[in-house]
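hey so u asked for the seq, here:
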Amino acid sequence: MYVFAHIFRTHNTSWTNMVSRSVEEKNLNVRRRAAFRFSLIIPAHNEQDYLPALLDSVEIARLHYKGGSNAIEVIVANNASTDRTAEIASARGCLLVHEEKRVIAAVRNAGAAASQGEILTFIDADSRIHPNTFNAIDRAILNNRVIAGATGVSMERVSLGIVMAYMVMVPLTWATGMDTGVVFCRRSDFVAIGGYNEQKLFAEDVDFLWRLRHLGGPRGQKLTRVTSIKAVTSMRKFDQHGDWHYFSLIAYALYGMCFSSKRVEEFAKKYWYDDRNRDKG
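ran it, structure tokens below
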């Protein structure tokens, strides 16, 4: 999604006040005393097939954290799931939050609104995190020159098509410091930028890090990539659409943005939100 970053930022120029209001409406109060060092927020729509493996990896990482496992809360933001996602999250002791709006940015914000951690971390449900995740992020965020960051990801499987798609994203990652995987920031900075932009149906993570990057600039802060603790991400979109589909995806999205914003919205809803286009759960 990084290849679309510049173009996405040209749309929805009135997002700033709308997003700030959205976060305020969800009662995210930075001034309250943090009860945890970390909040890990997992947006989840029909993720019964992937969530258990992620939670297994999270439990291992919590046990490895030098500050103690009780310093980390795990929040599953259930997004109108019709499967056992909520049941699994509750059974595993996660804080369960419900968000009906089918926009991933809104789901991330809902999880953040319920959180009580000093550091907010976000990971997609079809992932697994590294055992040393919280220790490494803790070290990174203690550096006052770091505004936020991400761990990056390793692929669940590889092929020539997947590697070529990955290589398309590498230059922008190197140039901007933006990455994917476990994304993290301080609670105060999350609130300062108004959280995730709920006007975006996709690439909300790119937009989020871009705004944090600009927030930190005047302070002499920048984004960081903690690639020693990469998360493992599933290849479910490639499994479903084919290992070379990313290039046709780019072409379609660019065409739509140049000639029809409505077409972009229709495309986004079909590709990212239509359950018929999910291979599992």
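The mean pLDDT is 84. Strands lie at 36-44, 72-78, 95-98, 117-122, 127-128, 146-150, 153-155, 183-186, 222-225, 231-233.
lmk if thats what u needed
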